[in-house]
Amino acid sequence: MNSSLYPGPFSSNNNSYDAAAKSLKSSAIGQPITRRSALALGTAMLCGSVAAQETSATAVEDRLEFLSPEKQLWQVGVKVMSAGSICEEIYATFPVPTNWPEQSVQVVDQNLSRYVDRWDTRDLLGGAKQVMVRMVNVPPNTASDALFTFEVTKSRIKGVGETNDLVVPEKLEREERIFLGSSPYIDPRHGKIRKIANELQATPEQTPWQQVEQIYDWVRDHVEYREGDIKSAVEALDDGHGDCEELTSLFVALCRAKRIPARMVWIPGHCYPEFMLHDAAGAPHWFPCQAAGTRQFGEMDEYKPILQKGDRFKVPEQKTVQRYVAEFCKVKARFKPDVTFVRELTDSE
Asked: For the sheet containing 270-278, what is the strand order?
């Protein structure tokens, strides 16, 4: 494999993915793959959950209720149309939905062109899953696709548990510590962020839950929702306005400045934050809230699928830390092909 063309290895963080990937690669190289065998192997690889990183440290969720699940079919993948020359190699990556407590994902179909040499999945620390696809020797003026259809079952979230016993975490697991640090456009150590965080002093009567709610209300009261170009949490604070990304970033930054883990949740066309508190036994619980839009604190009335959770991702194909895991493509060809990434709703119940 040409390392200059393929910056990241075809690997996975989960042994079961590795086994499935090895089997699939062997089939791809040595013998034809039937649609049934490919779909079975693909399901094993694609439906493993990044949430497994989280589940190992999370107790059975008794503070939230998941209501009225709704099923949707989403097609995700990449389409390539070669130009006037052969495409010797095409390497593409794209994020795909995965399992979370409020969301289950199942692969129900896949369309892999004959020029797809191999594909694999990769979990990224922080809450994202990617598919990596390699196509080879695509003839001139020829289409080559790698498309997956997911059945996403998403539930509304309602808070039902006790909150008075929840506390700010004193000790975090390694994979949770990134939700206290800096990330692109979010700097909890900036002087202006720390100043606001210090001004939002808790009273002796306030619980940690009420302290987070105080941050939430402050952001919504002081930053007007207004669509525009992306900017940092500090810039939104200075301007007094921003869209869902800026309001979410500011809430996350203020939480982190007060040592409360928080992260961004990405759905199609929107994002919102989650924050973490521990119960009396030290078990972590993540709670959503809607920074922009209808007031929703500790609950979420949203059916769009979760694309990823987090805001600090180390992606092998990128030199810098990424706020959001985007699509990527690198091509070895004389003439540049037309590459289209697909993420579209095909059906819903």
From this structure: 296-297, 284-290, 270-278, 262-267, 308-309
| Residue 250 in this model has a pLDDT that exceeds 60 | yes
Domain extent for 180: 159-302
Which band of pLDDT confidence, cut at 50, 70 and 90, is reported for residue 291? very high
- 109 within domain boundaries: yes
Give the β-pairing of 308-309 and 128-138. Answer: unpaired
Pairing mode of beta strands 116-124, 103-112: unpaired
Are residue 144 and residue 166 in the same domain, yes or no?
no
Q: At residue 88, does pLDDT exceed 90?
A: yes
Q: How many residues does the chain have?
A: 349
d(CA 266, CA 305): 9
Tens of pLDDT, residues 149-200: 999 999 999 988 789 999 999 989 988 999 999 999 999 999 999 999 999 9
The verdict on residue 7 lying in a domain is: no
Cα–Cα distance measured from residue 230 to residue 235, given in angstroms and rounded to the nearest whole number: 10
Q: Is residue 9 part of a domain?
A: no
